[in-house]
Amino acid sequence: MICFVLTWPQRTLKRLRKIPGFPPYQIWSYDALLRARKLPHATWIFTDFDRLSSWELELAAHACRELRGAGMRVLNDPALATGRFDLLRSLHGSGFNRFSVWRASESSSVDRFPVFLRTEAAHRGPLTDLIEDAAGLEREIARALEQGHPLRNLMVVEYCAQPLATGLFRKHAAFRVGDRIVNTLAVHDSHWAAKYGKHGVADESVYREELDNIGKDTHEAALMRAFDMARLDYGRADFALVDGSVQIYEINSNPTIGRTLEHPSPFRLESARLAEAWLVAAFHGIDSPPGPALRVADVLLLEQRRQDRFMLRSRWVI
Question: What is the DSSP string of 132-190?
């Protein structure tokens, strides 16, 4: 069995039950995990770290160590996983990514344009269009603050994209599941961010090229290196090719696992079928057989559960 742990509620895994051959699984919220007396024997996958407080991360790290101490396989250590900003800065500093990032609080240090604003946490995409100069950046930061975005959650990202053709951008994606990299469907869009894709922007030649390349491991070494830098054993990397070089935009620890069953292009449908089959095989590769359940004994987790019971009973106001 495989147990996914995520913040609640989330819809990223709602289609797993419809995927043929997917191994047995459970979806746990962090609330349930951190208050459980017993935990089933399984492969555990921790996700959604950007939505946790520092205290919740610490508790999750204790749960991770309890599970590993009982001999269970755990993917993604909450104590080690790297956040979006730190990962992108490390990738740039190591020479992997050619584009840089800055926190909004250090906007005076931004010396490369164009840039755009986005948040470090959540997965809402860019907050702005491309910003061409320092004055424009300050205006956009002020606007984001006025809209209620916390300053510490704002980051400035240097633009780095390359169109396949005029008005056509492609964003690649690949999963890591344990020791395997699994390519999945790309997004094609007329906008440089290419977050959701745009119907009709790609033709059959584009989808045929995608099918020809989806099973190749051309970028596997680079992607595995990026996942290792992120300290993530599971997730999905979103990336582009710029002058043939992999440029990592983000690695999502709680990616949506969807299905593509309808599309006008038979090449696209075949790519979707292959990607799904390879992903299912990768999950079977990390699946754990039945075994004895773990009775939680970690002192910190037990104390937190005791305090939670008290908080549920009390109605005090300071």
Answer: -SHHHHHHHHHHHHHTT--GGGEEEEE-----SBTTBEEEEEEEEETTEEEEEEEEEES
